[in-house]
DNA sequence: CCCGATCGATACCCTGGCGGTATGGACGCA
DNA sequence: TGCGTCCATACCGCCAGGGTATCGATCGGG
């Protein structure tokens, strides 16, 4: 079959997300009937039913679920194509690096000067975005590089270079039953409320949704939740919380990530600077491929 | 800006590849003027010049080169979205595994029975394609899994699991000046003709283009080329060629690859079967994510 | 030096795809 | 059974996008 137009993919994604033709049409700024027809056309040409509709409800078929995920990827790729071309075409080249607050564990302050020494260096703009937004920004071409946090962030579609791994600590309110322990294991935390982060779906975790570290610290201080965080988060710790090492928590890592198959010398140089700083000056030859 | 339609991306790719509006239009089955206008519109909306045209020649701007690469990725993603949805929607589920001739080093014969024991197993179809075609088939959704050959195949965009690594041997015609050596190093081969493979651009290598192993063996026997190949290729060796270990050649590896973020249980089970067979029965818990 | 060939851009026309409005029909609920 | 909801169908009108004819620039050959 002939490939669907990006418009059709966007229509389908809207309907699949809303599971409601009326609302989807509204979101797309159009009327409902043409939207219904567009989806019908799409299904007919693909030869697959994507949606199950009764006059009361719309649901995804298995093929529809696959197509939703794939369509999102495809739309990201289209958006990325435009953004990357625009960025490489316009004005002076610059690198856009995106991170979440505290997402660099203090490395960036040493990376930037190291990077500027590289002959391939260009101007760097650092954007601090909301938690979970970085990978989307990298995926759709708004950013050139991102500091991600393994194992939470989804690194698929990116090349990554690990910068440092750190153990995790439990952050507890002062006076918590475990606050005086020298160390603990994950099972000690059974039954505690753990926070949920936007963009991260952990099965079971149903504690309060937190948006940033200070919000989280506030909730911890109020004994609403406890959290298990990378060690460097200690620097955000307020006076009224305590940190206790968690011996069996998976170690967390900070990665620098960039789009796969990137050929940019500026990106390669930045990655080089990252690994040099992170690994104590040992040159890593094949960084940046 | 509003996203370009896939049709526009296809137009641009055609022009960028042909570097000639007339030929590109012909390839697309349309007249030249609407194609010129479509590209102009695209450039105007993107706000970037993609092509440099004089009335005699067309060339890519740097932004155009970036956009060409990104557009190909995006078109692949769109095609993959359709194919994967179709496959998961139609008929009985089946897994399509793609490999090049001899690309499994004999593993597949043991993997398939192991896979069938898995409760998540579905029917498997194995397609043997031309060299260098596998990653394209995996990328655009025609295949579910592929056996790739590191470090030659481009694995970006895929999740991979290495199955086995092997040392490389030089394949020489009987009577070659190095044929009697017990082992050699790469620099011993300086000045020899090395074959080129379709889809693999190695800087410098400018020997004859070979399409498959038997063709290559033929050329070796005729003293047209020598080749450095993974050890398992010995089994293709004809009587009139000899194999000599190359001590410092990078070791080659066979990987099983599948599209990132795949959630299919059937794919996960297949990968599980692969790792079990390859690693001698040691279960690998997180295979298939 | 001019003429013809080449090739992309422009001018103009026309069709069909796509979006809009009005309405139908199925289903759930009170 | 009447009403509200929600997707599908019918029908209409516009313009985006494709076609043809032609222009203008540039290069090469006689």
Automatic annotation (TrEMBL), chains A, B:
Gene3D superfamilies, per database record: 3.40.190.290, Periplasmic binding protein-like II, Winged helix-like DNA-binding domain superfamily/Winged helix DNA-binding domain
Alphabetically ordered keywords of this record: DNA-binding, Transcription, Transcription regulation
GO cellular component, one term: protein-DNA complex
Residue ranges constituting the HTH lysR-type domain according to the UniProt record: 4-61
InterPro entries attached to this UniProt entry: LysR_HTH_N, LysR_subst-bd, WH-like_DNA-bd_sf, WH_DNA-bd_sf
GO molecular function: DNA binding; DNA-binding transcription factor activity
Family matches, as CDD domains: PBP2_LTTR_aromatics_like
UniProt record similarity statement: Belongs to the LysR transcriptional regulatory family.
PANTHER family assigned: HCA OPERON TRANSCRIPTIONAL ACTIVATOR HCAR, TRANSCRIPTIONAL DUAL REGULATOR HCAR-RELATED
The name this protein goes by in its record: LysR family transcriptional regulator
């Amino acid at each position: 079959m002939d490939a669907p137009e990006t418009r059709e993919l966007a229509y389908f994604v809207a309907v699949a997300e809303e599971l409601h033709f009326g609302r989807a049409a509204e979101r797309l700024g159009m009327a409902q009937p043409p939207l219904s027809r567009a989806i019908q056309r799409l299904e007919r040409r693909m030869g697959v039913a994507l949606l199950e509709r009764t006059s009361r409800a719309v649901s995804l078929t298995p093929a529809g679920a696959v197509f939703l995920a794939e369509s999102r990827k495809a739309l990201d790729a289209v958006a990325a194509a435009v953004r990357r071309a625009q960025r490489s075409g316009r004005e002076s080249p610059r690198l856009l690096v995106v991170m979440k607050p505290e997402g660099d564990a203090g490395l960036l302050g040493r990376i930037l000067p190291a990077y500027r020494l590289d002959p391939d260096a260009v101007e760097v703009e650092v954007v601090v975005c909301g938690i979970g937004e970085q990978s989307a920004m990298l995926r759709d071409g708004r950013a050139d590089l991102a500091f991600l946090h393994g194992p939470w962030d989804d690194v698929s579609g990116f090349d990554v270079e690990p910068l440092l791994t750190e153990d995790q600590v439990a952050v507890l309110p002062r006076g918590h039953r475990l606050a005086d322990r020298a160390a603990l294991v994950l099972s000690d935390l059974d039954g505690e409320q753990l926070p949920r982060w936007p963009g991260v779906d952990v099965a079971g975790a149903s504690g309060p949704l937190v948006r940033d570290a200070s919000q989280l610290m506030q909730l911890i201080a109020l004994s609403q939740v406890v959290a298990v965080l990378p060690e460097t988060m200690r620097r955000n710790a307020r006076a009224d919380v305590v940190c206790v090492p968690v011996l069996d928590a998976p170690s967390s890592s900070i990665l620098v990530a960039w789009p796969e198959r990137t050929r940019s010398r500026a990106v390669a140089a930045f990655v080089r600077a990252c690994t040099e700083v992170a690994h104590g000056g040992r040159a890593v030859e094949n960084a940046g491929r």
